[in-house]
Structures are given as C-alpha cells and as structure tokens.
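Still learning. Any example?
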Amino acid sequence: MSEMGELFAEHRRLGQQRRANNRASSAERLAAAGVSFESKNAGAHLIVSAGSKRIDFWPGTGLWIVRGDPRRRYGVQKLIRYTNDPHQVGG
C-alpha cells in the first residue's frame, strides 16, 4: 500500500474508534442525566423521549433531530439541556 493509502487507512481507523467511543460515552451521559432513551442498532441510534417530543440521536456523530422539526443539531450536552428545558419539550 502506498504511503497516502496507509495514511488514509489510519485516518479511517481513528474515526471509527472515535465514533465507537462517542457511542458509549453519550449513552452513559444521557443515563447519568436521567434522560429516557431507547437504543437501536447496537447503540448507533438512540430514540430519546422528552416530554411530548421524540428525538432521534446518533451518538457516533453527535447528530440529533427532533421529530417534526427539520433542524439538525449536534452535541450530547446540548441534547441534555434541550430535554431538561420544559419550554422546549412541552412538559
């Protein structure tokens, strides 16, 4: 394999490792914050329940989308703040 190919393979491996770590730590942080969620696809997709809202969360990338709202948001800490805000979740 060429040097460029080896660098790309290493970059890909590090990204996969980072996303795997994010999946584990994000689920732990949500649970510690008391956020209710259901795990799908071996933890790659979490469905968060917050008040009257359902939120799709992909912890590997940090992406979360409130169902019915087209905005794409990022970050587990922002998700936790959102779920704890009664004005946002209708609770």
In short: Residues 3-89 form a domain with the Copper Amine Oxidase; Chain A, domain 1 fold (CATH 3.30.457). DSSP finds three helices and five strands in the chain. Helices lie at 3-32, 76-83, 86-89.
